[in-house]
Amino acid sequence: MSIRWKTAQALEWRWWNAYFKNKEKESYYIAKKAYWLKWLAEFRKWIPVDTAKSVADLGCGPAGLFTVLQNESVTAADPLLDIYQEKLSFFNKADYPNVQFVTSTLEDFEASSQFDVVYCMNAINHVKDMEQSFQKLVLVVKKGGYVVVSIDAHNHLFFRYLFRLLPVDVLHPHQYNLEEYKSFLTKNNCSLLTSMVMKREFLFDHIVLLAQKN
Hints:
Blueprint: H1 2-20, H2 25-43, E1 54-58, E2 73-77, H3 81-87, E3 99-102, E4 115-120, H4 130-139, E5 141-154, H5 157-165, E6 176-177, H6 178-186, E7 190-200, E8 204-213
Parallel strand pairs: 1-2, 1-4, 2-3, 4-5, 5-6
Antiparallel strand pairs: 5-8, 7-8
């Protein structure tokens, strides 16, 4: 898994660089923020606003949920933040003065205090160690706090095993189905509150799981 993870990390910022190549920064972020605000409204149907004062965006990438979190104390972490800052003209930490950026993998992330809400959007299947990463998501959230994680859940047993055996999906070292992802939360002392379908596709469904720490 280490080799697959290192390969995925090496390719990740290059993917972002190619993705941004023919885009205009301001118009991209307008559209991206509208996308995040739509989903944030869905999350807040389950998360009382007055209990979400401290927030973590783990695996944030260069355009994560932190871009629309204006009224909370926000910590955003990603192992490639320094590379994004150096090599991606679209990303500048100074654009987000209310955000504390931390260059760290999810597994190694440390915080001085626990958070009311921990988001991990479009990132969990990029991690090196899935078990350890889910444990960390739960560890850094307060009792009664919320974990919100988006997943790419396999729809077909055959392709799940094929993708595990062969480096078909090189950016994503991990391949799981929906029930397996749910179990990572429930076995780490969380109650699953809801699952929301972001997008349905043949190979994967893109789903958000929202859980509360017991």
